[in-house]
Structure formats: C-alpha cells, structure tokens
Write a structure and sequence with these properties.
Blueprint: H1 8-15, H2 38-55, E1 63-67, H3 71-82, E2 86-90
Parallel strand pairs: 1-2
Helix pairs in contact: 1-2, 2-3
Amino acid sequence: MAKAVLPFADWIDCARDPRESNQQRLYFVGTFDRRITFYSQQVRALRLAHALDETGAILPSHSVAVVGAGAAGATIAMALALMGHDVTLYDPADDILHL
C-alpha cells in the first residue's frame, strides 16, 4: 500500500509557525516533532524545499536565510542552493552537522 503524498500547500502549512499569519515567510523543519531521525529531517527538508520552489513561495531573486546547520538546515540550504536560490546558512558552530 503506497503512502499518500501531501499537496505542496499542506507541506508549506505544516512548516509555518502556527502563531504567525500566512503572510509570514518563516518556516520550521521538524522543530515541533518528537521522534526525529537524521533521515526524517532530510526528507522533511527536501519536501519543504521542493514545495516552496514549485509553488513560487520563494523565487530565485529572493535571498533565503537558513538558521541551524544540523541535518535539516544543511539539507534545505543545499537543496535550495541547487535550485538556484541565494542561500545563507547561519549556525554558531564552525562546522555543519557539528552534533
């Protein structure tokens, strides 16, 4: 039995801060989840990057800031950069995936 894939809008809505308006362009990958694996963080990051790109929520002319260079942050930063977006990755550690 195949899993259903959520529409792009659902992936974007799931990543928004529930306290913010729909106009806010702030997204979270796995922040509020309990059981998080390296793989699940990468899958969520790639799905969100794909949804944001496909829906036009972010355009190549937009600058994107990614905060946190863990599995999700490094993955979404790389995915968006490969899609042609201008990405800056912020983390207090000197290296990515420092944990």
